[in-house]
Amino acid sequence: MKRFGIAALAALLVVAFTLPAAAVEHQFGGYWNTRFFMARDFSGSSAGANDESEDYSVVDSRTRLYYTAVLNDALKLVTKFEMDADWGDGGTEFGDIGADGIAVEVKNTYAEIDYGISRIRVGTQGAAIARSFFFDADFSGITVNLDMDDIIVPFYWIRMDEGGVGKDANDGDADYFGVAPFFKFDNILVNPMLFWATTQDDSKGNDSFFDISPGTEEKADLYFIGLNADATFGSANVWFTGIYETGTVEVPAGDDIDVAAYLVGLGGGYNFGMFEAHGQIFYATGDDDSGDDESNDFFVPAGQSYYWSEIMGFGVFDDAVSNGSPGDLISDILAIGIGASVSPMEKLSLGLDIWYAQRAQDEQDGADVDEQLGTEVDFTVKYALLEDLNLTVVAAYLFADDGTDPTADNDDTVNPFELGAQLSLGF
Fold first, then answer.
1. pTM
2. I need a labelling partner for 92 at 20 to 30 A (CA). Which of 22, 133, 288, 310 fits?
3. Could you give the dihedral angle defined by the CA atoms of residues 40, 45, 46 and 51, in that order, rounded to the nearest 10 degrees?
4. Of 284, 317, 361, whose CA–CA distance to 33 is shortest?
């Protein structure tokens, strides 16, 4: 696959520079970063095997190259490649001595067709839905956007899993089908959504996306009904997201599982010029009994990715999260964040964010659990070194509570911290 990526990139460049200039317009872009960071005590405990078990220090780089072939006003082909490497990696990446690793990945490749009021994308593309609480990932499928000025109606078909080849293999296909229109009213944007996630037999797929009973469920139909709203009032902004999840998972050897869960989020900010303040809160239900015939923990089969704090929610250095946290897969959690930033000069910004988080459920399978994860403090410095070259420095510290400690003896709880810097550019 990686050799195919190299060949595909070479073929695209050959086509780009050999076609007649009048036949196609070539657009190039990209992104690059290098990160220097260290994390300590993410395991949450100093006891036994957990002592320093998740400590790491690493330097890594990411390059993304974008090429768009504009064939005419109504048709274009978009292709994006990505190259990742840890410095000094001795595997197939390019970060080691010699730097000749094969590490080209195809991130996106899709045709975009404008037809009347519709914009159609066919192929591997990216999408963010419901503020990333529901979906934020690349996928293979089809999207259709109907643009009617103040009303935009996107339709989605997202292929989650291909069942493969063989008798009844198609039963293992897993898909999202959905619509999420945008309605604009002066300073208010309203975005309802309705999605259906379905498979005929999840145990036949390559992966188990409906993980209530991994590898055993025969048929699953989940429905996500939600509303997103954004409003701007002068220098102030507020937002809301609410998603209700329902449906049924048919389990051959047992009772069918009824799904009933929800997520709500609320946030906003105010800009005072060189100073701005912001905050948010979100809550996603958990499940108190994994053995009954009802699932109450909010979950999305694939593609959910909501970043929040640096240590508990991935943040800038998104290699790992502290023990006990769901990370970017928002489920069974209550999180509250407040923060502010100040720009004392044109190229410099200083930010401070404070997060408190705990798991939504204080009982699991009849036993009490330690639900409080702790309070996190994130300090950020952003500086524009050059016109297109930015430096970001992050220092984060989690005052861990019992929910972060995986051991029975919470006297061994330690506080995770992270330090790092990132250079980045885009063009």
1. 0.91
2. 310
3. -60
4. 317
